[in-house]
């Protein structure tokens, strides 16, 4: 039986940090998380966050720390992505393991309201981080997803019965989907058909690119993995992170989500998608975002 593991990039702040802490708490799977600096500090903060709210079944910090690996990765540097993937293959040999949950979450935003406000270097950085970054993650980590012949019986047992060792004191046990999922963070503004307000040229283009490469990657996985793996794009809504700080005051309170709430909704969507749902962009309500 192939053993599953989780990949989250980046995990040093925002949604990625909240997601890594949540999955440490709600599963017993090993996790490979990435950051560009202070790797020891990121690991310490993730372990602390994963145990902060556990009450009825206190978690072992040592156990969480032992299955959490934090490595350097910069999505603007392909050599660092390749090195991180080699580390992953060493930690989780493909002969006995497979990447089951992958979250490609890099993102920056330079909102341009007018064409004359577009700065070439800023637009280039946006496309490099938001689109080319996830594409390079697919290139180097996609090979670690399960193939057609991968024995998924361990995961299917978990999907039907849940992870008995995970903390369920807060109703937060996460049941793995039977198939592996590659999720790339997108945004509703990446929808060309739903573009009603204009503006945000480079960010819109970068997220439209995310949706396109996700569809293409999913088609690759259909041939390679035959239902054992899917790729989806995901719109989390407006989340209270550094990326959206400039716009907090313009968003209704009930539409400005905490990272913890955003993570719960993300995992609900991941757990409820089927193999037929790959290649699409889904929002936090589980509704498809049009291309």
TrEMBL record:
One of its GO terms (cellular component) is cytoplasm. GO terms for molecular function: oxidoreductase activity. PANTHER family: NAD(P)-BINDING ROSSMANN-FOLD SUPERFAMILY PROTEIN, SHORT-CHAIN DEHYDROGENASE/REDUCTASE. This is Uncharacterized protein. It comes from the Eukaryota. Belongs to the short-chain dehydrogenases/reductases (SDR) family. Gene3D superfamilies: NAD(P)-binding Rossmann-like Domain.
């Amino acid at each position: 039986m192939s053993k599953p593991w989780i990949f989250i990039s980046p995990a040093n702040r925002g949604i990625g940090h909240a997601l890594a802490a949540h999955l440490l708490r709600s599963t017993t799977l090993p996790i490979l998380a990435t950051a560009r600096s202070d790797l020891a500090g990121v690991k310490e903060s993730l372990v602390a966050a994963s145990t902060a709210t556990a009450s009825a079944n206190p978690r072992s910090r040592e156990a969480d720390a032992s299955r959490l690996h934090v490595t350097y990765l910069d999505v603007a540097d392909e050599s660092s992505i390749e090195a991180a993937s080699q580390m992953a293959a060493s930690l989780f040999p493909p002969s006995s393991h497979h990447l089951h949950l992958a979250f490609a979450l890099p993102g920056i935003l330079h909102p341009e309201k007018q064409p004359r406000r577009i700065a070439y270097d800023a637009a280039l950085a946006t496309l490099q981080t938001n689109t080319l970054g996830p594409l390079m993650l697919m290139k180097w980590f996609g090979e670690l997803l399960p193939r057609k012949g991968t024995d998924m019986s361990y995961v299917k047992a978990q999907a039907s019965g849940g992870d008995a060792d995970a903390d369920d004191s807060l109703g937060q046990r996460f049941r793995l989907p039977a198939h592996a999922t590659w999720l790339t963070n997108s945004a509703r503004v990446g929808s060309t058909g739903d573009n009603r307000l204009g503006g945000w040229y480079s960010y819109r283009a970068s997220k439209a690119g995310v949706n396109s490469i996700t569809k293409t990657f999913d088609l690759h996985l259909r041939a390679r993995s035959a239902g054992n793996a899917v790729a989806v794009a995901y719109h989390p809504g407006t989340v209270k992170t550094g990326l959206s700080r400039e716009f907090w005051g313009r968003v209704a309170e009930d539409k400005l989500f905490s990272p913890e709430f955003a993570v719960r909704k993300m995992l609900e969507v991941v757990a409820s998608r089927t193999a037929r749902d790959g290649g699409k962009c889904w929002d936090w309500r589980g509704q498809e975002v049009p291309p």
